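Re: that chain you flagged

S.,

Sorry for the slow reply, it's been a week of failed gels. I finally had a moment to sit down with the sequence you sent. For the record, here it is as I used it:
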Amino acid sequence: MTGVRRGDVFGGDGGWEGLALEVESRDRPGLCLFAAEGRLLLVQGERPVLLAAVDDDHCGVEFRRTGAYRSVVPPVRAVAARETAGWPDRWAHRFAEHLAEAADGPLHGGRWLLARESPLLRRNHEGLPLSAHWGGTVVEGHPDGYVDWFVHNGSRGILPLRAMPDRGDARVKAYRKQARDGTLPPVLLWWIGGLDCHVVLDGHARLAAAVAESVVPPLLHLHRTAPGDEVAAGTERAVAEYEAELVRYAGLRDRHGPVVPDGAVIAGASLARRLEGLRTGVRPTWAWPLPGGRDAWERVAREAAGGGPSGWPGSGE
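Prediction finished late last night. Pasting the structure tokens below so you have them in one place:
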């Protein structure tokens, strides 16, 4: 894919927060999400990768993986891992280059963010060991499973797009050493709103290694964000409201004296939050109407089961 402009995003403290991707192409992506009457189908090229059925009561979603997913990022060499260790911004640029070039990746026209911050990093209220916490974050089941929106509430689940390798896998063993050394490359995630969870675009073995070593896996979190014109218009409104708030505080100070603050601290903090949300906030994932609708989805489900009844609840059979 061509026509991807990149720009680093920094927070108010000057720290790197992510990499913005302005994608000019309006073509349907190679890794495309289709929707039909409460059913989702993720297709990579011509290959169905994931089928999902949302519960009628919206308590969760049943899924079936086909095993056909192929990573959009080439294997990371040990030398590159050592040279780029501790530099999430460099990893983001590296992944962005591969995402832009991939014919079977998820990018389509609009503005995206490869973010260092993720809601997955904000939760371990139970104080569990890291292996137990991150192991519980990974959605279990292969080829079938269930994303429980109560257990994994608030986009806090990770759904692998292929079966997770076990601890004896050669790749996991190699990555476990990198996890111990602090040179483990990030796991590349993509947030899909219709599933209300993250899927693993690249790094299944790295995630397994981090869980095995009981360390926090380094993450880069891909999601759609507000387009440039929306950011510009929202910024203009936010600044105008900030200035109006300062005028209001000035009037209060004229009437009541210096006991009233000038408002810069309060209004400034609100302005900073609004601008941050405009620059980095998550926008809904796009899904395309599935040609043939629900019947087509059912046909794919049967084919994924080898031609007979699919045998999983999401198919309705």
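What I noticed first: Helices lie at 78-84, 88-101, 130-137, 170-181, 204-213, 228-256, 264-280, 293-304.

Talk soon,
D.
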